TrEMBL record:
Protein name (database record): Transposase family protein
Residues in Insertion element IS150 protein InsJ-like helix-turn-helix domain copies: 8-54
Superkingdom in the source lineage: Bacteria
Gene Ontology terms, MF aspect: sequence-specific DNA binding
Pfam annotation, one family: HTH_28
SUPFAM superfamilies for this protein: Homeodomain-like, TrpR-like
Length: 79
């Protein structure tokens, strides 16, 4: 589960965009000011969708893993 919901992040961003500074916003919501800056940047670049949780773990198929291992062994590559 994400530490902060998309709705919470959007509320923080909207509060910031209403004219308050990063430190004021972070103090009001009890978060670090760098989170405010990151969320505002994501919102400005991608809209509300930029505040959603991203899955950072890439899942590779067994076939892909086999091909990678095979290439490493055949070509003498390092991992």
């Amino acid at each position: 589960m994400a530490k902060y919901s998309q709705e919470f992040k959007l509320e923080v961003v909207q509060y910031y965009l209403s004219g308050f500074g990063r430190h004021q916003v972070s103090h009001k919501f009890g978060i670090h000011h760098s989170d405010v800056a990151k969320w505002v940047a994501n919102y400005n670049n991608h809209g509300a969708e930029g505040l959603s949780r991203k899955n950072t773990n890439t899942v590779y198929t067994p076939e892909f893993k086999f091909k990678v291992i095979q290439s490493v062994l055949e070509q003498g590559l390092s991992v």
